[in-house]
């Protein structure tokens, strides 16, 4: 699964120091910069506004996403918060019918205080999406594959529809990364990442990224980034650049392992359903194959009623029960009580996020070890 990004991830962006020739971007651990006179500086005044290490990661993600302007934030939620700050009282944002619980929470509990509303729509259904685009809607924010049911939304068709209606299109590309999917190339206006996940890749930093092509939009986002101040620190910027250098190799292994486990789980007598867009049985398989290079490293599944999912979560030996995803280690998550707990139970169930849903971030371990761990945990969860 080779890509032009294999080389770009290592050599792209402003990731070589022009002053010293250092092949790794130095950590510019400074809050301010000396000025030779009033209004005279070397392009840097204050590190909330601009920092050379942050410049490195911002230019790198912009190049990798095929964009012109990148912005780095202290977390994925800080990135989403900044983008949502583009809107004003009376505006409305459409979100996919299953998205990360934090995205729902910030709209439902924070931006509602400023008069910004939201609609939950099955964005995989373009007719439903078009019907939802009433005059007050100013943006569509989607995940594809969506978290945690891996629902697929057609990106190019969504972008065209949004442009026709004069609405901003925003894609959270965390699950896919630019290595597998580049929404800007399909007409999307704004791409978001929780860089905490695959881009960092080692569960050792928290970061968020935004990429756009439009200069006017970039100017607005840059103003908000500086004004709100939720920027990525120099050391975390350095760690993120380092993590991205191995993204290609890691994503290849994540995808291989996830596809292997998805096939094995779909054949397991204890498994009721598997959600993975790399399986031909997945409802969005054709669309996903057309817009992404592989199925990714995330899958979800449910066990049959005669298996206790609570026991399953307690029984794995290698796979860790933990929040987050996208690290080199495999992580299990219970969406109903973890990532999506902020969504009311009745609404979760309407979305299809039941109590027995298990989400698995497939790591880069030996695939047979992961399968054996899942098998023994399933066996322990069998109700006698």
Reading the helices and strands in chain order gives HHEHEHEHEHEHEEHHHEHEHEEHEH
List the total number of helices. Answer: 14
Q: What is the tally of beta strands?
A: 12
Q: End-to-end distance, in Å?
A: 44 Å
Q: What is the C-alpha radius of gyration, as a whole number of Å?
A: 21 Å
Beta strand %: 15-25%
| Share of helical residues | 25-40%
Query: Sheet with the most strands?
Result: 7 strands, mixed
* Shape descriptor: globular
Averaged pLDDT: 96
Structural class: alpha/beta
Strand order of the largest sheet: 1-7-6-5-4-2-3
Low-confidence stretches: none
Descriptive account of the structure:
The chain is of the alpha/beta class and 384 residues long. The chain contains 14 helices and twelve strands. Strands 1-7-6-5-4-2-3 form a seven-stranded mixed sheet, with helices on both faces. A five-stranded mixed sheet has the order 8-9-12-11-10, covered by helices on one side. Helix 2 (52-64) packs parallel to helix 9 and helix 12 (309-315) crosses helix 14 (367-381). The model has no long low-confidence stretch (mean pLDDT 96).
């Amino acid at each position: 699964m080779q890509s032009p990004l294999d080389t770009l991830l290592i050599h792209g962006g402003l990731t070589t120091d022009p002053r010293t020739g250092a092949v790794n971007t130095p950590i510019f651990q400074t809050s301010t910069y000396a000025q030779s006179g009033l209004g005279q500086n070397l392009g840097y005044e204050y590190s909330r506004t601009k920092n050379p290490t942050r410049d490195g990661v911002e230019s790198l993600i912009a190049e990798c996403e095929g964009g012109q302007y990148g912005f780095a934030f202290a977390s994925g939620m800080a990135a989403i918060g900044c983008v949502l700050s583009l809107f004003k009282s009376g505006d409305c944002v459409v979100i996919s019918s299953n998205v990360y619980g934090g995205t729902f929470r910030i709209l439902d509990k924070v931006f509602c205080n400023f008069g910004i509303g939201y609609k939950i729509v099955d964005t995989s259904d373009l007719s439903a999406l078009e019907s939802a685009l009433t005059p007050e809607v100013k943006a569509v924010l989607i995940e594809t594959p969506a978290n945690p049911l891996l629902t697929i939304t057609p990106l190019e068709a969504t972008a065209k529809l949004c442009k026709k209606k004069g609405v901003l299109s925003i894609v959270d590309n965390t699950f896919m990364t630019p290595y597998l999917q580049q929404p800007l190339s399909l007409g999307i206006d704004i791409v978001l990442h929780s860089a905490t996940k695959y881009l960092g890749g080692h569960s050792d930093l928290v970061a968020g990224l935004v990429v756009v092509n439009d200069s006017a939009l970039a100017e607005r986002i840059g103003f908000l980034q500086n004004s709100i101040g939720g920027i990525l620190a120099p050391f975390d910027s350095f760690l993120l650049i380092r993590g991205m250098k191995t993204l290609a190799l890691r994503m290849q292994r994540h995808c291989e392992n996830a596809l292997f486990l998805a096939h094995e789980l779909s054949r397991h007598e204890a498994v009721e359903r598997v959600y993975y867009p790399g399986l031909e049985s997945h409802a969005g398989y054709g669309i996903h194959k057309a817009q992404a290079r592989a199925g990714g490293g995330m899958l979800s599944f449910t066990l049959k009623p005669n298996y206790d999912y609570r026991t399953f979560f307690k029984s794995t030996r290698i796979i860790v029960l933990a929040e987050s995803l996208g690290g080199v280690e495999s992580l299990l998550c219970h969406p109903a009580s973890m990532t999506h707990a902020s969504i009311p139970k009745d609404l979760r169930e309407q979305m299809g996020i039941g109590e027995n849903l298990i989400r698995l971030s497939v790591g880069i371990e030996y695939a047979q070890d992961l399968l054996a761990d899942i098998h023994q945990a399933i066996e322990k969860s069998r109700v006698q």
